[in-house]
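Convert to structure. Protein one:
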Amino acid sequence: MKPKGDIKYLTATKIGLIKKKYCRFKKNGINYIDYKDPEYLLKFINEQGKIYPRRLTGNSLKFQRKMAQAIKRARHIAILPYVADLLK
């Protein structure tokens, strides 16, 4: 009979290996998000054209708002599509 304190896992546990999220704009010192750069803005939208939330991108609130505004401006002048199937 196994002792109660002995726990076996099928896969190795990832204790202490969780990467901390960070704001890439603060880290790189970016103050302005260019709405005329569609390749950079594609990193923040999914295949359907929806904007990724902060919890997935790791952006701070200030830069998430700026990034969303830049994506909306790019959509308005037809650099990015509003809705797309398999955008990436």
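Protein two, convert as well:
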Amino acid sequence: MIVAGVIPCYKTPKKALKVVRKSYDYLDVVICVDDCCPFNTGKEIENNFNNKKVFVLYHEKNKGVGGAMKTGIKYALELGAKIIVKIDSDGQMSPDLIPSLINPIKSGKADFTKGNRFRDPNVIFKMPTLRFIGNFFLSFLTKLSTGYWELFDPTNGFIAINSSTLNLFNLNKIDNRYFFETDILFRCSINDIVVKEIAMEAKYGDETSNMYPIAEIPNFLIKHILIFHKRILYNYFVYDFNPGSISLIISFLLGITSILFGGFYYLRGMLSGVQTPTGIQTLFLAMVFISSQFLTNFIYYDVTQRPLFRKLRSLS
């Protein structure tokens, strides 16, 4: 079983060398993708690793971390890799954890694995405050949009995935930039792929992130909204129809009816000056309450039953 590591390289000439050197012993193939790096990270790697085990690919234009990963994944699949690991070149993720990351896939207990930085409570004190707050809200948003409520650190970029799962996706449609990991997770969710987390420690030093969080907020929000609607459509109406689907339909129909019903009598009262009868007000409140209850049922199903289904799959 060939295990390949893909390392997107951009503005990390020195740290990338250390990452490749540490990853070397755990992987059958190391694929470094120089994403049009102005510091020639790819050349630095080539000059230091004259070995058939290490491959360096180049982009003529910067495509982003997702674009670099897609190039590396396609090459790894051509080489016959069965498991592909994503490793960032900035040294935040220890390659020593690669065996722990790929073991659940090798044993058949998972199709996709991710690191989890929050198994150790001390990570809260080690992580920069702004980054911790950003991760907290982004993690919740990712759970909501992808449906992987069982994951505690869904935005973690230290991932491993098997080739059979990758073959379910059209790689060309996956996001080219920082939304790559979330986009992969979304596509896993509509196929009910089993995802496991392994405990890890992230290192926060003097590295400089190429992502500007404030500038990415509108972009991330729009993409999360889009994949949320797609997930609901696929998971509850295209690929499956379940109690959650029924609850959502009833909630939606009653909600729309109550809005139209209440709006009609409110405008009628405003124009005529006649107070809306108590019975009509009671009926409106009842429809709103019942709609809310069915929406709550849907949320409960989405948060508990789908993760349970994936857990049972992993045990079978």
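The chain has two domains: 3-233, 241-315. The first helix runs from residue 13 to 23.
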